[in-house]
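User: Show me a protein chain along with its predicted structure.
Assistant: Here is one chain, sequence first, then structure tokens.
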Amino acid sequence: MSHVPVLEIGGTHVTAAVIDTASARPAPLTVVREPVPADAPAGELLDAIAAAGARAEAPAGAHWGVAIPGPFDYETGVGRFRGIGKFEALHGVDVGAELLLRLPGAPRRISFVNDADAFALGEYRAGAAAGRRRVLCVTLGTGVGSSFLDGGRPVTDGPDVPPGGRAHRLTVDGLPLEQVVSRRAIRRFYATAAALPGDGPLPDVHEIAGAARAGDEPALHAIRHCFGALGRALAPWCERFRPDLMVVGGSMAGSWDLLGPAVRDGIASCAPGAAPPAVTARRPADAPLIGAAHWTLRGAAVTPRART
């Protein structure tokens, strides 16, 4: 099986493609990206996801790979989205069975994988993590995603990784990590540091980074505070897991030249010598698609239920 159809489901979009696993690239003219209504009823959500998949022109009887954020039961294909502000309608829904009924071409099976793991696997197969044994992949966007890879396999339990292998479950300074390091948290911290009026629009993270580069003290303080906290949260796990490399992706990775020193300083303050070399993703756009495709070659899968 060299051509694998995949879906990457994000909080605001769904991307479909057919991945040539031999070349680790999408097949020509197969990539489709569409908005997804994250707060819509279950049927509307599933129809939108399947409609994007239909446009990718997957082969009949295919085994699909699907990268999707948690909380999700990846073995059974059932959503566990409760109290997180997106995909609430899919809580308790057998997403695997519903997609198998909706996707064209009588799909054979679906393998689900966490979206952060899919990103990491794509970078391991065809990006910045190629050839590395132990890799920590971090995605910085709306929140913090993470994956700890050992020999190309996600590590999700044991003493060397956070619970579930997920950094967003960590706490720092007595707070959940994403209350300190997330798009919303960084913007709010900067607004306080800069004494911005409470009723005005807040600059986005890339604008705060730009101000920090220009020497703006509140922006520099926000970057050092928030990303130093990320480093402190990751420090014990860098010390235990001992990654050969950290690969950084997500919308904030473009400012890594500024954010990276703060993260390294945070790690060094708690675990001197434990900070791994860090690089930005080489395949930021298609790494999750590549990773989902390779996951189908070895992952457990949801099989079709009887069609009615």
